[in-house]
Write a structure and sequence with these properties.
With about 160 residues, the chain is an all-alpha fold. Among the domains are: about 70-110; about 110-158, no CATH class. Helix content is about 70%, strand content about 0%. It contains four helices and no strands. The protein is rod-shaped and about 115 Å long. The two termini are about 40 Å apart.
Length: about 160
């Protein structure tokens, strides 16, 4: 039996694929692009003393770590934004389901089940059975409900 992917998971997967493709396209563009890097010793590191070389090393390290942490922060921000979007969608779906259930509960109790003075016990049983069938009918899905045409013609004791 194949399990179908829910719409929410499908949307998440598509979004992630688009983001990964955009990142890959950007990376490929940077690798192919001609950039004027200058001379290998543009900063003059070869002519520097030990202290100056250490300072350049610290600058490069701070710049590299800063870039990594900035990208991690942006990634966390994107994930949190997506989480809030998905939670909002879940709340909307939950609210729709609650409204649907409340609507079904309002119309599921047939009002024809009132005890009328002077009725016999058999008539009360017929009314109760008819009310049960009507309640079952009202609780069905709309697609299935269209195939449930019924009419109580007679009730026989078994």
């Amino acid at each position: 039996m194949k399990k179908q992917m829910s719409k929410k998971k499908l949307i998440k997967t598509i979004i992630m694929c688009v983001i990964l493709l955009a990142l890959l396209a950007g990376l490929i563009t940077l690798m192919v692009m001609d950039m004027p890097y200058g001379t290998p010793d543009k900063l003059g590191v070869g002519n520097s003393n030990f202290g100056q070389r250490m300072w350049i090393g610290v600058q490069v390290s701070v710049l590299g770590m800063g870039t990594v942490f900035l990208m991690l922060f942006l990634l966390i921000l994107c994930v949190n934004i997506l989480r809030y979007i998905m939670e909002g969608a879940q709340k909307v779906a939950k609210k729709r389901a609650e409204n649907k259930i409340a609507k079904q509960q309002q119309i599921s109790a047939p009002e024809a089940v009132l005890q009328i003075e002077g009725t016999t016990q058999e008539e009360e049983i017929v009314v109760a059975i008819t009310a049960a069938v009507a309640a079952y009918y009202d609780a069905q899905e709309p697609v299935y409900k269209s195939n449930l045409k019924f009419r109580v013609r007679s009730i026989k004791e078994i």
